[in-house]
Design brief:
By secondary structure, the protein is an alpha+beta fold. The chain has 12 helices and 20 strands. It has 2 domains: 277 residues, FAD/NAD(P)-binding domain, CATH 3.50.50; 82 residues, 2-Layer Sandwich (D-Amino Acid Oxidase, Chain A, domain 2).
Length: 381
Amino acid sequence: MPFSTTSTQPDVLVVGAGPAGLAAAIASAREGLQVEVIDGMKPPIDKACGEGLMPDSLESLAALGFNIKELLHTESYPLRGIRFYNSKSTVEASFPLNSGRGIRRTVLHELLVDRAASLGVRFHWENSVQNIESTTSGNLIRTNRQRLAARYLVGADGHQSRVAATMGLTDATVHSRRIGLRQHYSITPWTSFVEVYWSDFGQAYVTPNSFNEICVAFVANTKIPSPQEVLTHFPALARHLSAAQLVGTPRGSITLHRKLRRVTTGNVALIGDASGSVDAVTGEGLALCFRQATALSSALKADDLNLYQHAHQRIQRLPSLMSRSLLLMDRSPRLRDRALSVFQRHPALFEQLLQKHIGYSPLRFFGSDGLLATGLHMLTN
C-alpha cells in the first residue's frame, strides 16, 4: 500500500542521528515520505573517525541531493589519493577521476542536519529510547521524554543498537575488533593524500581536514595509551608532527568488522554500524551508510524491506572483502612488507586496487572473481 501523506504519525522514524541515520532520513524524505529522527544527544554530535570522504562517498552524497560544489566551499581539504608507508617502502595512487575531501566530523554532521531539515525532517533531540513495541501495523517507541509512533522503524544507533537488540537482529559474525583513537593537530598539511602509516603496532591514518589542521586516527589491536606515546611506533609521522599543536582532546572508539545475518525484520530495518560494519582500515564507513540509505529509501517507498535486505548484502560485499584483505597485512608483518614492496615496484597494481576499492574499475590482477585475499597471499611467494 502507498504511504499516506496526511497521517498523524510519520512514515519513518529513525533512531540515531549520526551520518547513517541522517542519510536515511534525507533519502526517505526525498522519496516523499514523512520522516522523524530521535537521538539521545543534541548537535553537534562528534565521533572518532578518520574524517576523509573518498570520491565514492562524495558521489553517494550527490545522490542524496547535495551540491558537491557547495560542499567544497566548506571548511575542508582536497584529497588527491592514498599513500601507504612502512619502514621499508612507500607507495601511492591518485584517485582516477575526482578528488576526495577531508572534513571535520562535526562540520559534516551540521551539513547533514541542515539538509534533512530543509526536506521537512523533524528532530527529537535528547530523546533516548526506553522501550520499543513493534506490530504488523507500526512501531511504538517510548523515550525518556515522549511516546512516538511510525509505520517503519530504522535503527541507526551504532554497534550497540538498542533497536537491533530489541528486534532480535544481533546474530552476527565478528571478524575483527580493534581500538581506535583520534587526535586533531594544528599544522599546515604537508600532504594532499590520505597517508596510512603501517607498523607492527597498527596503523596511523593522516587526513588533512582544513588548510591549518589534520586529523590522525590510530588503530591497533591493543589499548592505545595516548597520541604522544603511540607516535613512537610511527617515527616518520612523529617527525612531521614535531612542531604541531594538539587540538582538543583524544577521542576513542571501537572499530569492528562485523556481519549480521539479517538487517530487517517485519517493518524494522538497520543501517550504518547498527547493520554491521567493516574495519576502519577501509575508509569506507561513510560511503557504505550513504549507499545503504539510498537503497533503504527505495525499499521503504516500495513498501518492501526485502529489497533492502538484498541490496545491503550486495553493498557490503566488496568493502568486506577489502577489510579482510587489508587486515591480513595488519596481522602478518611478512605479508605487509612483501605487499608494499610489490606495490612500490608495480605502482599500477596499487592503482588498480584503489580504483576497485572506490568502485571505479574491475579488479583485473587477481581474476574476475576478485579474490584479493588470495592475491595478497600470493605476494608472499
